[in-house]
């Protein structure tokens, strides 16, 4: 297997030159990849909720779409990235009924917050696979720029 | 104050006892449940907990209502879930895992097992601690273990770690291995509330 890093909820990793970034399962969470294809550098973050301004003080910024994307952008720039693009996947609704009101449509809200944040930060969203009812795993290859999205019964698609 | 994990283990023990009795009578067989374990997990560890990466499972999930918040899962590999359903439907040999994925009847049988276990477990907690605590609603998902578990982490968003109480369930004398996993994941406030209520009930 190619050298790689696997991230879980609220985690982030960066690879340079070669290697892959993977997430373990995304349900309503979203995996976002920011990359600079020219400089062969990419970072991935796994966010749970849309909006850190609704969180209590001192909340972990890597768990919220708005703050996580901005933080990842800053880390990538520190490591030499310039023009960043994005790909993302996730935001499913795995449970239709068994969710508390505050988590209704959380997948869609995560996706909306991610799109908005990317636009605000001037990052082009190149591709996304959002929604549905099934969990996903994703893998990004920094060399090829391909994001492979897998679901249990529907195989793999490449973004 | 006693160690919180010890308190939680006691809570899990009582929940498990009720759940085992309820499942034994539903299946008409002697269900074996291991002594439950309680452990701290950091948030990032929860989706990777117990199951292999990318493993497909069947899970009955219930967010908690009442005075405790958190969630409960009853999970099994799809193979074991098929076996549970077959046992309940008395179709011991016919039900294969791929059939489980397509059979509403089989899925609803498995969900029934989950409902029963979760309901009995929480009833025991309510009785023990005098706290109102029940499943808000239960729902079945057949999907990646890690994605399902991550949904249970949504309520824990403000916590850096959580306490997970796990009980392994098996039916030793059936023709197919029947193994399931019952998980109780209270949020931080709920685990404090539970520990305090338990202490109070011990002093009565």
Automatic annotation (TrEMBL), chain A:
Pfam families: CheD. It comes from the Bacteria. It catalyses: L-glutaminyl-[protein] + H2O = L-glutamyl-[protein] + NH4(+). Keywords: Chemotaxis, Hydrolase. InterPro entries: CheD-like_sf, Chemorcpt_Glu_NH3ase_CheD, Cytotoxic_necrot_fac-like_cat. Probably deamidates glutamine residues to glutamate on methyl-accepting chemotaxis receptors (MCPs), playing an important role in chemotaxis. This is Probable chemoreceptor glutamine deamidase CheD. It comes from Shouchella rhizosphaerae. The gene is cheD.
From TrEMBL, chain B:
This is CheC-like protein domain-containing protein. It comes from Shouchella clausii. Pfam families: CheC. GO terms for biological process: chemotaxis. It comes from the Bacteria. GO terms for molecular function: hydrolase activity. Keywords: Chemotaxis, Hydrolase. SUPFAM superfamilies: CheC-like. Residues 9-37, 106-135 form the CheC-like protein domain.
């Amino acid at each position: 297997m190619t050298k790689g890093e696997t991230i879980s909820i609220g985690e982030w990793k960066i690879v340079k030159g070669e290697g892959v970034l993977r997430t373990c399962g995304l349900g309503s969470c979203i995996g976002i990849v920011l990359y600079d294809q020219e400089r062969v550098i990419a970072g991935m973050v796994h966010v749970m909720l849309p909006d850190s301004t609704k969180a209590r003080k001192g909340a972990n910024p890597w768990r919220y779409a708005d703050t996580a994307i901005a933080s990842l952008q800053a880390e990538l720039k520190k490591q030499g990235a310039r023009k960043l693009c994005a790909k993302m996947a996730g935001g499913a609704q795995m449970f239709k009924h068994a969710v508390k009101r505050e988590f209704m449509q959380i997948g869609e809200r995560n996706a909306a917050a991610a799109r908005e944040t990317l636009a605000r930060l001037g990052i082009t969203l190149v591709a996304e696979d959002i929604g549905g009812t099934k969990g996903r795993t994703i893998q990004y290859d920094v060399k090829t720029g391909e994001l492979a999205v897998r679901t249990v019964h529907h195989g793999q698609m490449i973004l | 104050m006693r160690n919180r994990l010890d308190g939680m283990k006691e809570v899990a023990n009582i929940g498990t006892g009720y759940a085992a009795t309820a499942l034994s009578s539903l299946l008409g067989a002697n269900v074996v449940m291991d002594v439950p374990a309680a452990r701290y997990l950091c948030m990032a560890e929860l989706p990777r907990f117990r199951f292999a990466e990318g493993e497909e499972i069947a899970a009955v999930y219930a967010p908690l209502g009442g005075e405790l918040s958190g969630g409960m899962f009853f999970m099994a590999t799809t193979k074991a879930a098929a076996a549970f359903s077959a046992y309940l439907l008395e179709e011991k040999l016919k039900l294969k895992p791929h059939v489980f994925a397509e059979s509403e009847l089989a899925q609803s049988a498995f969900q029934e097992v989950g409902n029963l276990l979760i309901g009995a477990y929480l009833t025991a907690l309510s009785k023990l601690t005098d706290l109102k605590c029940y499943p808000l609603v239960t729902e079945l998902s057949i999907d990646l273990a890690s994605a399902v578990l991550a949904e249970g982490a949504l309520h824990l968003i403000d916590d850096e770690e959580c306490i997970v109480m796990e009980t392994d369930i098996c039916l030793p004398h059936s023709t197919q291995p029947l193994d399931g996993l019952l998980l109780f994941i209270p949020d931080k406030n709920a685990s404090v509330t539970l520990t305090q209520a338990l202490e109070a009930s011990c002093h009565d």
